[in-house]
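Let us practice reading a record.
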Amino acid sequence: VGADKVWAALPLLEYDSSVAPAIEWAFGNAFICKDTDTATKVAYHPRIQVRCITLDGDSMDPGGTVSGGSAPKAGASVLNHIDNLHSARKTCETGKAELQRVEQEMSGLHQVAGKYHALKQQVDLKRTELSLLEERLRQTTHHQHQEEVDRLKVAI
């Protein structure tokens, strides 16, 4: 009914464990709603019928009690602060999950980079060995004879 405009009140509260029974009794069957229209829909829905409190402090009770409706105060209400805190926590959790994903990806990239550098080092070593072998081959008598034969063929 309320989609992303309704939250259970109890998880939004922080309280001492010594007052837990009283808090659970007072807020255990209550929802926090973003606006009055949503609170009315949720509170009077035939399958829900639970007390709803808006971020402005209005209260809708399916028992017939409606309170609030006063002009907005100069400062933001406590419920608005709770809503902002709830949103900030969700953003923080999303950011932490993204950070963890990026760190795992970076770890994988570091492993690939290490393998790349090891293989590149081996290739460079083999190239150096090849150039040294070619140089030694040029200094053999067989290679010198082969060069002389090639020069004679060109001369003939």
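A brief commentary: The beta strands are 6-8, 30-33, 51-54, 59-60, 66-67.
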